[in-house]
Amino acid sequence: MKKYSHIIFLCLLCFLGVSTARNVSEIMGSDGRGFDPWNQTRWAAWYSSGTLIEPFEIDISVTFEARTTAWEIDVGSVRALAFAHPALFILNANSSVDVNGNGLTIDVRKSYVKAWDLYYYYTHTINIDNDYYNCDAFLLYQTQEADESDAGSRIFNISLKGFNRAISSNHDHRRKVTVQNVVLNRNLWALFPRGRNVTVENCNVNENVSGGLYGEYNSAHWVFNNNIFKDNNTRGTVSYGDIVLDACRNYTITNNQFQPATYNTRDYHIAVSLYRNAGESDDIREFAAKNNLIENNIFDGYNIAIDFAPRMGRVHSLDQSLETRCYTSGNIVRDCDFRNCKIGILLRNNYTTVENNIFSNTEKEIVLHNVFYSMYHNIINQPGCNVWLWSVESDYTAYSQYLPYGNGAGEQIQPNEKFYHVICKNPMPVFHNFQNTELLVSDTLLVPAECDLDSSMIIDFNDLQLLVSDWLSSGTSIQFTNQNTNIDLLNNVNFADFANCAKSWFIENERSDVFSVGGRPIDIAVGDIAVYESGNEIAVIWDTPVSNIGGTNYYTIIIYDQNGLELDRCGRSSDKWGKIAAGNFLPDTGWIKENANYEIAAVHSQPDSNGKYPVYIFRKGSQEPAVIIAQDNAIGILAITAGNFKTDGDEYDEIALKLQNSDRIQFMKPSDASWTRYTLNVQTNITSMAAGEFDGIKSNGDEIAAVIPSVSPVYLYKADATTHYEQTANCGKSWSLVAGGNFNSDSRRDEVAVVTANAENGIYKIYYFTAQSSSTTPLKITELENFVIPPISLEAGKFNVENPLSAYEKLENVTYAQLIQDITSWGEHIAVLPSDKKEYSIPLFWIATNPQDSNKSHYRTVPLLR
């Protein structure tokens, strides 16, 4: 009882330290002119014995009373509202208000701090906990979005000094707010963006200790336009600068001036950094810094102007994956002016666009720093610009002081193990330091066997010139599918024919092979592993280690988005994984975790040190399993799948296991170790299983479809049954793999997809059947000419078709307009992983086939890079 009394006492203390709401309209009514919060008589309820204790909640438009001197105030006793960090002013009414500072300066610095000049900040360590009060100036917490016709709230014409964060916002802030003509000086942080829909313009952001602004996780749609940044991050904290974008998205940073530092005492001096924080308090960051636009800015005098993924390779206790990755993607740096910088743009990640920037007196204009194995899909449209490839520390010895983490955990990876993929227009930039690495300059990662005529790994005008020569000599010897050289049928081979061919240079590529770097994928799991991403995600395991951390090789589960962009990792292990499955197995708790995210169930290919084959359940981004089940299982696992087999008021999924030489399927529940069920008298040699709503009765949960390695039907099983309840696909064929999904848009029940164990006319076909009535006639058949290698894994999934189609996508006997019109009636896509490579590496394929006409298909080739 004593323990619980202590907890109650602590809760009471916390409650007593939290302020209640006090709106300024209580005193001012509806007329906010002459706002004078320093008037302790008028605002007596906000003070106690001359000390300010209550925040001012601004629920009406206010104009500060004119002053000739700064308002200097002790904010060390200001209480926090229940939802917020301590702040002097809070905007939390869901209506638009104006805050007119009327030229006011608010200075909350302690007296001894006011004596410090800028050089002191640059040369001393500031104790941010003791030297500054833990109080913000303005907190934005307007949760209701404004109508388009509503201009939103405004804060303008004011100067703020000495705050923890001069202007901050709550994660739930949604209302449009504009911050204009504000001076933010000598704070710890000038701005701390959370939430959405704030514009900061015509402001002066300077001399702030930790940085100009810190864009927090999951914040979005902040705009910074026409501001001046100077002398921020005087502490020189690595990865901090004028603008820090941590796991936030859709920021717009335009027309700003980033001015030279007054003193050059800190090696880490940057304008903009973008990264995904490893996490805090046993939480992980769900988002990368993505889809941010940096345009028309001037960067002058920085050691690194824009630093992408500066924490890549950093070993830190908060990194629960232990993989030391730092993710950014989809960001654009365009039309900027870089002057007098050591390094202009430093990239360490993928899917970044750099174009039309100007560099003057900048030593290293663009750097691709490959800390681990691969960098891909970076677009660099900078004709004649110098691009430096940094693979090992000797590549950047003269600049190592600006890269505190260097190659970090990837320091043992050699240049010949590294792969760079860059997309460029002609004329191209000039690449340096690529001789000992693999550099591919091409529009895609697809292997263009017919296009790379000079074997340079670069698809450029040199290849076209070779084709012209060959073409005009006697008609090209290079074969193009379904084409001859006399394309226009005018009885002569000339440039008219060549133009038709060149126009569709990549269209004839069969998209069955991709460039990659190391690793052979052996199994996939598909599901909503990252709910914030479009479509389903893909988890992949490998036959060889795909991580090297500090010189040690590891098997790691890599998680990709639907297009092959790496999102996260989990399950780092010294032992090889054998099979995986994905499902919503566990409740997730924490400030950041998404409860709907699927987890990944994984089993090793060999027994552990105790001779057991347990099942490990991993959350995205975690090396340690959240749960381990089947810990006493001493039998190898032939097949694993996930589904909703227990439906009595429970939202979480279960796992089905088929053990070697066993005649039963075991069902287990990661969220409830006491729940176990069995299906008896099953085929002992089951090689592949899939879950689905096959019987059309949602109330009794999912069923299991299973195949065996001989001519046989697909067997359908229910949990807690004594044998199979139905057969399907009984048409005299042998099946190697099975998947379950909604393949014909029937909302009542799922269908089964099976792959032929043997090639038919040289192709491995996918047949789709209803899961009832001993079906022998397929609903549809997928037969693509490039499916000449037997698949090793098959999964249903939700794939969003891009508009327009990417170069990785291809249509068979259907136009794009028809596809968009009909795709919802085609049912789910199916993910296919081949068992071997064609020449370079193994991609994954997303495929959808029209159930009304099997000749019509859409598919996408997905490169999988470690």
Q: What is the molecular shape?
A: globular
Binned, the helix content reads: under 10%
The major β-sheet equals:
21 strands, parallel
Question: What is the average per-residue confidence, as pLDDT, rounded to a whole number?
Answer: 90
Multimerization state: single chain
Classify the secondary structure makeup into a structural class: mainly beta
Describe it for me?
It is a single chain. Mean pLDDT is 90; it is low at 1-17 and 478-489. This protein is mostly beta strands. It is 7% helix and 36% strand. It has a 21-stranded parallel sheet that branches. A 13-stranded parallel sheet has the order 5-9-11-13-15-18-21-24-28-32-35-37-39, with no helix packed on it. The chain is globular, with a radius of gyration of 31 Å. The protein is built from seven helices and 66 strands. Among the domains are: 461-503, no CATH class; 521-862, Neuraminidase, CATH 2.120.10.
Could you give a quick summary of the protein structure above?
With 866 residues, this protein is mostly beta strands. Helices cover 7% and strands 36% of the residues.
SSE layout:
Blueprint: H1 2-16, E1 18-19, H2 25-28, E2 33-35, E3 47-48, E4 51-52, E5 56-57, E6 62-64, E7 71-72, E8 80-81, E9 87-91, E10 98-107, H3 111-114, H4 118-123, E11 136-140, E12 153-161, E13 165-169, E14 177-185, E15 189-192, E16 196-201, E17 204-206, E18 211-215, E19 220-225, E20 228-230, E21 243-246, E22 252-254, E23 257-258, E24 270-275, E25 289-290, E26 293-295, E27 298-300, E28 304-308, E29 328-329, E30 332-334, E31 337-339, E32 343-347, E33 353-355, E34 358-360, E35 364-369, E36 374-381, E37 386-390, E38 419-423, E39 430-432, E40 438-441, H5 461-474, H6 495-503, E41 521-527, E42 537-542, E43 547-549, E44 552-560, E45 566-573, E46 577-583, E47 599-604, E48 615-618, E49 627-629, E50 637-643, E51 654-659, E52 664-668, E53 676-680, E54 688-692, E55 703-707, E56 714-717, E57 726-728, E58 735-741, E59 751-756, E60 766-770, E61 780-782, E62 791-797, E63 809-812, H7 816-826, E64 829-834, E65 844-850, E66 853-862
Parallel strand pairs: 1-8, 2-6, 5-9, 6-10, 7-10, 9-11, 10-12, 11-13, 12-14, 13-15, 14-16, 14-17, 15-18, 16-19, 17-20, 18-21, 19-22, 20-23, 21-24, 22-26, 23-27, 24-28, 25-29, 26-30, 27-31, 28-32, 30-33, 31-34, 32-35, 33-36, 35-37, 36-38, 37-39, 38-40
Antiparallel strand pairs: 3-4, 41-42, 42-44, 43-44, 44-45, 46-47, 47-48, 48-49, 50-51, 51-52, 52-53, 54-55, 55-56, 56-57, 58-59, 59-60, 60-61, 62-64, 63-66, 64-65, 65-66
